[in-house]
Specification:
The structure is a single chain. The chain is an alpha/beta fold and about 375 residues long. It has helices at about 20-30, 70-80, 125-135, 145-155, 190-200, 215-225, 225-250, 265-275, 275-290, 305-315, 325-340, 365-375, and strands spanning about 5-15, 35-40, 45, 55-65, 100-105, 110, 115, 160, 180-185, 205-210, 255-260, 300-305, 350-355. Strands 1, 2, 3, 4, 5 and 8 form a six-stranded antiparallel sheet that branches. A five-stranded parallel sheet has the order 10-11-9-12-13, with helices on both faces. Strand 6 and strand 7 form a beta hairpin.
Amino acid sequence: MKTSNCIHISLGSNIGNRLNYLQEALQAIYETIGDVVVISSVYQTPAWGFSSDDFYNACILVKTFYSTSEVLDMLLEIENSLGRDRKDGEGYEARTIDLDVVFSSEGIIQTEKLTVPHPSMQDRKFVLEPLAEIAREEEHPILHQTVDQLLEKTTDISVVTKLNKVILNPKQKYSLSTFQYLTIEGNIGAGKTSLAHLIAEEFNAKLVLERFADNPFLPKFYEDMERYAFPLEMSFLADRYQRLQDDIGQLDLFKDFVVSDYDVFKSLIFAQVTLQEDEYKLYKKVFDIMYRDLPKPGLYVYLYQNTERLLENIRKRGRDYEQKIPAEYLNKINKGYLQFIKAQSDFNVKVIDISDKDFIVNRNDYTWILNQLIK
């Protein structure tokens, strides 16, 4: 997973339906740049540096895996899509939307295209007022004063009015907490753990991950599948059963729901592929006894990727013991999952084909998956 970058962005509009332009910009930022963590109130402010209609302004905090320079380029694209035409060297002008980077967790940035912190923020109440609402104690890395102190000392005497109007966080439409327990499943290398991490962080969910790295039989299994299949599958079953009982049976009061990167049914799917017939019959008896006591997911998601993409992902993440996994084995696992899913009449199941998606490097792909979850 990439390191998160936290960026404060100032939004402004003084043409047409100002509130709607702010909302559309916010939607585009969420879909293409990152999680909108917090949003200020909307403030009405006079045009600064030129004569024109009043602005509506707000500030937001965005968490993203893009660099600040990449974010700037994306903000310019959003402005352009909403009818903003930046004209270099022609001074201030009315605009449908104005998006500026104010602060970044990358610190001080000075390039031809970008200066962070914003060089004029301390002189502009239309930035400082909404920013103080969401980042009062944030310290300016050059001036070494908090936003609250900058607001108190600014020479800008503009009258800034806090409005009753609001812009809504776009992620509110993804009511994932209604599922209570969300399972993200997939073949080896499909990206289920990465997606579970992203959802848990963005939607305040309790994260339950499989402890595959702690299983001593796993490296041995990939060296000699026939010999180590039964002890591997039994050890996984015992661990999955124990963890799901402990972690899902006891909901965290401070989390909205549970998201897991596995379901105990995967034990049966892998066992069917790896075990001999007599071993599988014994395994199935034990599984059926355990499964009766376990909570069932409110939504079961299967991330499908074709075998070529799976092998590519496995190579990229570089776990030595996985590099010898044959394509035939991955094909069997995919078939096992799909057969299992077809047989479920009482499960809320979604199969999402992400063979042509990369939600780790492309925020659009991630929000596309979120939209599939609520369809």
